[in-house]
Each structure stands twice: as structure tokens, then as C-alpha cells.
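Much of what follows relies on a compact textual record of a protein's fold. A record is reproduced here so that you can trace the correspondence yourselves:

. . .
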Amino acid sequence: MSYEQLKLENQLCFPLYASSHLITRRYKPYLDELGITYPQYLVLMVLWEHESMTVNAISNKLLLNTNTVTPLLKRMETQGLLKRKRSKEDERRVEVSLSKTGAALREKAAQIPLKLSKGLIPDVLSLEEVQQLKDLLNRLIDHLGE
């Protein structure tokens, strides 16, 4: 029996995993300047866009389990980046909103995507190729999330 299907070079998952890991590593120096981690940056981006959301909504948006997001949010609250409070209508729901400190980081973080793109565009991928890759990955995520 041939085991070609088990070679690392024949896997879709490995280049996705490796590129995600390597891109996340590129974010680190910029996020270190802000005093946040990449998962915290993701939460902040969601809240910068929506201002206030429930823990479940944040979890769904980031494709993470609530038991992963909850400790992350607790740490961020301790850092003064956000506020959590129980919903008055349903005590099981926890509303999350930005603190002044968390909102202020938006301005500092605004340059991060541009700084990162300089290493990809046009050195490795054109802007059009980056958009095509993003579109393809979003289609894959949508399909796998069904």
C-alpha cells in the first residue's frame, strides 16, 4: 500500500498551520509594544468594531470555545483593557465592552496591518494575490464551519 497521503508535503493542513504560526510570530514585536498577545489582539479587534458583545458572540466570531475565551477575557479585564458585566435581562449572559485603555490601543494598533503587509506585498505576494488567498481561506472556513 502506498502512503503518499501521509506525507507532510501532501497535506493542506500543514501549510495552513505553518503560515498561520509564522504570520502570528511576525505580529509579536508589534503586539509586545502594546503589551498584548495575539489572542488579545483578536478580541480587541472584535470589540473595536462592535464596542460591546457577549462572551458567546466573541467566541463565535473568533471560532473559539467559550472556555478558551473566558480566561482570556478575565486576564484582559485584569489588565484594564475591557470590562465584563452580567446582563440584567439574563444573568447567564456576560456583556464585554472596552475600557478607555482598550479603546485607546486602537490608535496604536492601527498601523500594525500596514507594517506587516510590507513584508508580504510586493516581496512575496501581490495585493491581488493576498486578497485572493484571503477570499479562498474565508470560503474554506465557511465550508468547514457549517
